[in-house]
Amino acid sequence: MDFSIAWQKLNQIGRDLMAALPNIAIGIIVFLLFMLLARGVRAGVRRVTRGMRQNQSLPLLLSRLAYVAMIILGILVTVTIILPGFTPASLVSALGVGGIAIGFAFKDIFQNFLAGILLLLTEPFKITDQIKYKDFEGTVESIQMRATTIKTYDGRRVVIPNAELFTNAVTVNTAYDMRRLQYDVGIGYGDDIAQARKLMLEAVEEVEGILREPAPETLVMELAESSVNIRVRWWVNPPRQADVLDAQDKVLESIKNKLTANGIDMPFPTQQILLHDQTEVTDGDRRTQREGWPAGKGDVPLARAAVPEPKLKEEA
Q1: Packed helices 107-122 and 57-82: angle between N→C axes, nearest 10 degrees
Q2: Where is this region: Disordered (predicted)?
Q3: Report field, pTM of the whole predicted structure over 0.70
Q4: Fewer CB near the last or first residue (10 Å), C or N of the chain?
């Protein structure tokens, strides 16, 4: 068995490796320098963006992007030093169709990644803001590169892809310092509307934490089946969910107690059933019946009890 060819191959590999050792050493040193440079760039970007924005996630995101970009650049430079025949263009050509396939496979990831960057740059909402998206509502915990996490009011975490938040409507409950609340209160048809509105305003103004400017207001909204509905509106600050519920609880309790103490009726829906085959004398007499129908002008039909029996048979 002839081992000379194998020995020559091993000899050649050893000589090539010895010849490449200086390049490998230089490449390792260059890569270590790029790592140090990447850390410095990351710290610098974080300091600069922290001074420009209040968003806590933006400095972290940009610093990570800068760090990863410097590491990738360091890898390319290192490989170029170790392998002089290697160029970034040759890497792109080597990827070829495979790169396109990878792009399609990671399309959603890239889309969410870009949406996350745009959310952090445009800041439609920030961390600690309370937002509502479709059926989800809660406090924003973090805005990451792929998704945004919110903590619901009942203590659950919801992870929402950034692309959905960027392309769909999102309600930001804490975007402004003040928030207006409202509630419809029904009073009886026999009650004085002006007095009821005055009492409602007094009840709202007695609640601690309700803003005096803009002032609370009342509006007659509907003449409903069983009540006159008056809409009470008031403003709170801050507009966080806990403050909103606390203010509404106190306002409604104050309104109810105030109206009850002053004899204002707060009716509930009722239904009246009229049976017109009754035998009482007033049944059908539009001058004396209690159903609320007006008697009208001129003569009205006789009551059923006043119509002679033979005439009823003739009409039948």
Answers
A1: 130
A2: 280-316
A3: no
A4: N
